[in-house]
User: What shape does this take?
Amino acid sequence: MNKKYMNSCDWDGDESQDSGTSRSCVFSSSEKRFFYLYSEINARNCADIAYDISMINFEDDEKDDKEKDYIRKPIRLYFNSFGGSVYDMWLLVDSIMASRTPVYTYCTGYAMSAAFIIFLAGHKRFMSPHATLMYHQIYCWRSGKYQDLVDDREQTDHLNEMIEDFVVERTGLTKDDLLNIREKKRDTYFSAKEAEELKIIDEIMVFS
Assistant: This one.
């Protein structure tokens, strides 16, 4: 890969103007298989990481063919993000899930909303003792004519169902748990200990 180290920081929308929106950044070292995703989940940073995951898999596939007993070194993805775009989230989720090379996810600050869902895609999931995870129902706003709103509602229902199915599949949370969260319209936070008990993570990180 040509990109051994990358720091991507761009404003959302028109890069030539300071629109007042937050910056979306990712530090990465593809050579060391290390990524640190902070700020919001958007098209740029999800595409960057998804691309590198694909390239690492391509290189590992080639080595698999040439080297006997080749062992793939895990890709490490660290989070410190409040979330962001649901559609871009799925790009990175599916890239992680499809990766033959293991992708380990680490919450070392906070992984909330869309970042929480991406975190769950990790083949192994780790959390530092003072980190925070947060899940809530899908958030969106719509406008337009009546039929536009009907069509949008159908798509929102579809997205919500996919998210809830994925959370149930990847954790110890049940459909009833998620229904309760949805009906109470609340953000639900998980400490490292709670996340371990609910099988959201595999392990709490220990620092010596």
